[in-house]
Amino acid sequence: MYLKRIIDKYLEEWAKRADHKPILLRGARQVGKSSSVKHLGRLFQNYAEINFEKSPIYKQVFEADLDAGRIVSQLSALIGIDIIPGKTLLFLDEVQECPKAIMALRFFKEDMPKLHVIAAGSLLEFALDDLPTFGVGRIHSMFMRPLSFDEFESACGFDALLKARDSASAEHPLPEPLYKTILEHYRTYMMIGGMPEVVVKWVATHNYSQCQEVQDDIIVSYEDDFPKYKSKVDPDLLRSVLHSAAVQCGKKFVYADVGGYKTHAVKQALDLLYRAGILIPVTHTSANGLPLGSEINANKRKVIFLDCGLLLRTLNMALGDISDITAQILTANATDLVNKGSIAEQVAGTELLAYKTANLRHELYYWAREAKSSLAEVDYIESFGNKVLPVEVKANVQGGMKSLWVFMREKKLHSAVRCSAENFGKITYIDEQDNGEEHQVTIVPLFAISKLYR
C-alpha cells in the first residue's frame, strides 16, 4: 500500500514547474524516500529508476565524464527506457554509492534543464562531505522525515476524524467522544511511530508485537550502518551514544553518562548520529528575538529521536524492560498519562518539525534559566508570524506553568502554547509582577500540533 505523505505536495509542485532544478531528497534510512519518488513517477509518461546499491554496474556510466547527454543516452540503453526531457522522471536511488552521480546533478541542470531528475539515498551527508564540489545553486534539496501523526491517521483511514479535529478550536473544543477517540489514536501513534514499514504492518495486523519486530529490525539496520559513518569512529561508541540518547531523551545531554569514553569522542559520535538523521538536537537559545539560531549555546543541547516508536524500542534495548512505560502509554487515563521517558516531549518535537516546509533543513530550540535561586525551562521555542512563540509540553491535563510565565515575563511576550493531553482551550493570566499585563496561553492538544501551521 502507498502511504500518502506531506512531501507529495512539494514533489508534485516541483514536477509542474518549468524552471525546476534536480532534487536531492535527504533523510534517514527507511523514512519512505524511494516510495514517494516512485509514487511521483505516475505523473510522467516514463519512469526510469537507477539503483546504485542494487546494480553497481551503473556507476561505470559516470566514470568517463559528467556530460549529461552522454550519461542519459547510455542509461537509457542500459535499462531499455526512453529518457526524454519533459516526459521522463529519472530517479537515481542510493546515490551515496556513486558520488560522481551526485556531482553530475549540476550538469543535468545546465545541459538538460527540462529533464526531471531526483537523487536520493542514505547517509548522504557523509557523501557530500567528501565531494570537491556540490553544485550550489543548481540543485534543490528536500528533506523527508517519518510519518507525522496526521499522516499516520490518514494511513489508518481516519481522514474524517482529522477533518473534525481541524474544525475545533479553543472557543469550540472537540465533543468529548471525538476527543477521547483521537486521544486513543495518539497513544497508538506513540507506540507505533511513523516509520513507513511499521505503519504498514500496523494497518495490516493491529499487532504491537509484530510492529516491534519491524522496529527492532530497523534499529539493527541503523547499527549495521555504523561502520560506514567514518572509519575513525568506533561503532561500539556510536551504539553506546545511541542508547544513552534514548535514556536521556528530552533532557540536557550529559556526555559523562556515556561511560568509558572521552567527551570529545562522544561529541563526535553525537554529531554523526545527527547528520545521519537518527538523532535530532534541540539547542538552547536565549530567544531574545529572531532568528532564534543567532543566540544559541551549542554546549547546551537536548536530544530526541527521529521517531517515537524507535525511541521506545531503543529504550528497551538500553534498559532491558520498559513494560511499565508502554503499559502507561496504552492504559493510563488522560488525566494521568505519565511523561515517562519524556515521550510526550519527543513526539511534540518531531511533530513541530513534520509540518514545516520540506524545502529547508529546520532546527529545534529550547530555553532554560539555570540560576540557583530560580530554575526555569521551556520545552520548545518556535517562530510563528515573525514572533517568538514558547511551546510548553505536558503529557497529562495538569501541571503548573511557572517556567512559561517566567519566560513570557522576561521576554515581554503575551502569547504562548501549551501542548498536552487536554482538549482545545485557553488560559488567561494577569501578571501582577508585570504591571497587570495579560498573558494568554492557547491549549493545543498533542494530537493537533499540525494546526499551529495553519
Structure at a glance:
40% of the residues lie in helices and 20% in strands. With 454 residues, the protein is α/β, with parallel strands linked by helices.
Which labels suit this protein?
454 residues; alpha/beta; five-stranded parallel β-sheet; five-stranded mixed β-sheet; 16 helices
Q: Can you walk through the features of this model?
A:
Helices cover 40% and strands 20% of the residues. With 454 residues, it is α/β, with parallel strands linked by helices. The strands form 3 sheets. The protein has a 5-stranded parallel sheet, with helices on both faces. It has a 5-stranded mixed sheet with strand order 10-11-12-14-13. The chain has a 4-stranded mixed sheet with strand order 7-6-8-9.
Cα Rg: 23 Å
The DSSP helix count reads 16
Largest sheet: 5 strands, parallel
Number of strands: 14
Strand order of the largest sheet: 2-3-4-1-5
Shape: globular
Strand coverage percent = 15-25%
Roughly what is the average pLDDT, rounded to an integer?
91
Report how far apart the termini are. Answer: 28 Å
Q: What fraction, in percent, of the residue positions are helical?
A: 40-55%
Q: Class by helix and strand content?
A: alpha/beta
